[in-house]
Amino acid sequence: MTPVPDIVPLAEGLPAPSLRPEQRFTLPELSYPARLNVARELLDANADGGRAGRPAIVASERVIAYGELQRQVNRLAHGLLAHGLDRGDRVLLRMPNVPEFILTWLACQKAGIITVSTMPMLRARELGYIAADAGTTAAVVWGGLREELERAQAQVPHLSRLIVAGDTAAGDIALASLMTGQPDRFDAADTARDEVAMIAYTSGSTGVPKGCVHYHSDILASADSYARRVLAPTEADRFGGHPTLAFTFGTGGLLVFPFRFGASTVLSGPFTPESMLETFARQGVTVCFCAPTSYRLMLRVPNMSQRFDLSSLRLGVSAAEPLPAATYLEWVGTTGIELLDGIGSTEMFHIFVSSLAGRVRPGATGLPVPGYDCRVVDDEGRDVPAGQAGLIAIKGPTGCKYWRKPERQAEYVRFGGWNVTGDVYARDADGYLTYQCRSDDMIVSGGYKIPGPEVEHVLDEHRAVAESAVVAAPDATRGFIVKAFVVLKPDHAPSEALAGELQEHCKRELAPYKYPRVVEFVDRLPRTETGKIRRFELRARS
Ligand code: 3UK
């Protein structure tokens, strides 16, 4: 089990931002006042600005208007403070895409409490690490997802206080009970523009999750650069799609962006291609956020465009992994709906290079989002000529601020304030940027980021395994899949049953999407002179 760090005061865990405000906020839309509260801007601006009756959240038959949501958020903000939480405290969120997620997130922001959202698929091991690293002092958990968190609780004292939403059991502190009897009005905490609002965790390529800090201003800046300029939303829009609200792709697409423009968010249950298409049609979704794998799966639904009325959809956003030209052309050819690739990261909060409607080059990610500067450089930070591959480096209103990881910070923010994501890109003479590959051991499968070393670590814990190496193998649907090369201990023989057992072991110990879909037993692993596993050789073999 991961050792448990002590709770660290906020200021000590925080890296200094690499850019001054005047270097970050270069667009007029980004000139924020020094005091800024993201919940006031996203919620009160609508509820008090004539949109109290407009729909904020649509979740199957439930529609919650901005005015009603504001009252709930205010009561919960009071309830959280009455429960002993304070400004600057960290609260872990573990919920699916339900209205309670948005309610809790906004209530925390309004009270100046820092949200640490976690993906529903994470297991006890991963949750325990995050809770300890972020120093969370309470968690809000969805009843149906409590088991893994309770397993983590056994090892992590930082998880002592659980607040349960949805199905509760006797003795629980229910989210609803915190709101009972609390006033409908709550004055937002007078937070600073550059005060921590959230810490979003991302799988590190080394296998240790990294917390990415975002300020109140970062969250709004992403809406006011990417969403405003690329999606041009109006209050008539309905944002939908499958990314979990805990992933910044979803936090932006299904919470921040719709609310910034007084539009609505459409929440849906677990993704299946049919249910997603059904939600688009029934709820009149106008802008959807999905990973390329999901667009491919939806295209495979027989007669999809005859069976589902997609006439409300005006724009699809594709992110989390590259969108191949073939997928783009098939989607636009079948549905007639524009599809915009965009690269984002948890460190940058959201998308910083994107295609633009009407100016798409199939196969290219696109152009820098207005407000962001972008270069393609070599390992020393020198620009490489057009057409040549190099590291993509970004500067803009959002940027990487790792929580308590100074060495990682120095790897991501380099060359004097440039964010180096680890993606290899080439820029053509017209400025269009085309993705080439990752420069590290991260496997991108179905939009999920899976650090090879993290899976290796869990495989190596199995009693039959001597050592292992995990790499990406090409796959028609998922882009890549996780493939494990396993060397067994002398007293164990390769078998299909053992391969299955290793897969089950990984699914139990890690978020199930990380398990190796292919296990190949080998006698030994290829190594370099210095003893490093030659992963590139194994990749080539796959
Ligand atoms: C890869 C892409 C090629 C790339 C994300 C939109 O994916 C998101 O965040 P993560 O932290 O991963 C970041 C990494 O994912 N990637 C993402 N989009 C693309 N590669 N083409 C793309 N269009 O390796 C990047 O460094 O999980 C995406 C918005 C918010 C996000 N957090």
Could you estimate the helical fraction of the residues in percent? Answer: 25-40%
What's the CATH architecture name of the largest domain? 3-Layer(aba) Sandwich
Strand order of the largest sheet: 2-1-11-10-12-13-14-15-16
Number of domains: 3
If you average the pLDDT, what whole number results? Answer: 93
- List each distinct ligand once: 5'-O-[(S)-[(2-aminobenzoyl)oxy](hydroxy)phosphoryl]adenosine
Might you state the CATH topology name of the largest domain?
Rossmann fold
Beta-strand level of the residues, as a percent range? Answer: 25-35%
Overview of the structural elements:
It contains 18 helices and 26 strands. β3, α5 and β4 form a beta-alpha-beta unit. The two termini are 32 Å apart. The chain folds into three domains: 21-223, Rossmann fold; 229-438, Rossmann fold; 442-541, ANL, C-terminal domain (GMP Synthetase, Chain A, domain 3, 2-Layer Sandwich), CATH 3.30.300.30. α3 packs across α4, α3 crosses α5 (99-111) and α4 (66-82) crosses α5 (99-111). Strands 2-1-11-10-12-13-14-15-16 form a nine-stranded mixed sheet, with helices on both faces. Strands 4-3-5-6-7 form a five-stranded parallel sheet. With 542 residues, it is of the alpha/beta class. The structure holds 5'-O-[(S)-[(2-aminobenzoyl)oxy](hydroxy)phosphoryl]adenosine. 5'-O-[(S)-[(2-aminobenzoyl)oxy](hydroxy)phosphoryl]adenosine binds next to α10, β14, β20 and β21.
Short note summarizing the structure:
By secondary structure, the chain is α/β, with parallel strands linked by helices. It contains 18 helices and 26 strands. A 9-stranded mixed beta sheet has the order 2-1-11-10-12-13-14-15-16, with helices on both faces. Strands 4-3-5-6-7 form a 5-stranded parallel beta sheet.
